[in-house]
Specification:
It is a single chain. 86% of the residues lie in helices and 0% in strands. The protein is an all-alpha fold and 121 residues long. It has a domain at 53-121.
């Protein structure tokens, strides 16, 4: 087992490498059932990642709303405002990452469709 990914993978790099491999395989050998199966398996992984990040995004949003309420209505302290701003920064990056996952998933649906269409020829 390779230790370079022991603490997680870089999703953007993972997705880019997979797309490049699929494009290379299509251009060199054409569509195959094996390629489609591999792509659909990685698409399932991406969908799972997207679901987990959606759940985390929703929970982070709830925390931000609670922190904002505490900062502006209930406590009205600088510490509660700082916590709210910190959570807002985290939320911003979660939205960006979720946006990437969502758009990549949609793009991979199109790639799967292209492979299926080529197999049907």
């Amino acid at each position: 087992m390779n230790d370079k990914n022991k603490y997680g993978i870089k999703m953007r790099k993972f997705c880019k490498e997979h797309e490049e491999a699929v494009c290379r395989e299509l251009s060199e050998h054409g569509a195959s059932q094996k390629l489609l199966d591999r792509h659909l398996e990685k698409l399932r992984w991406l969908q799972h990642e997207r679901l987990i990040h959606l759940i985390v995004l929703l929970l982070t949003t709830i925390c931000e709303l609670l922190a904002l309420y505490l900062a502006l209505v209930a406590l009205k302290t600088a510490v509660s405002l700082a916590v709210s701003l910190l959570i807002l920064a985290v939320l911003f990056f979660y939205v960006l990452h979720y946006f990437f996952l969502e758009n990549t998933t949609q793009h991979w649906y199109r790639i799967a469709e292209e492979i299926m269409d080529e197999l049907d020829k």
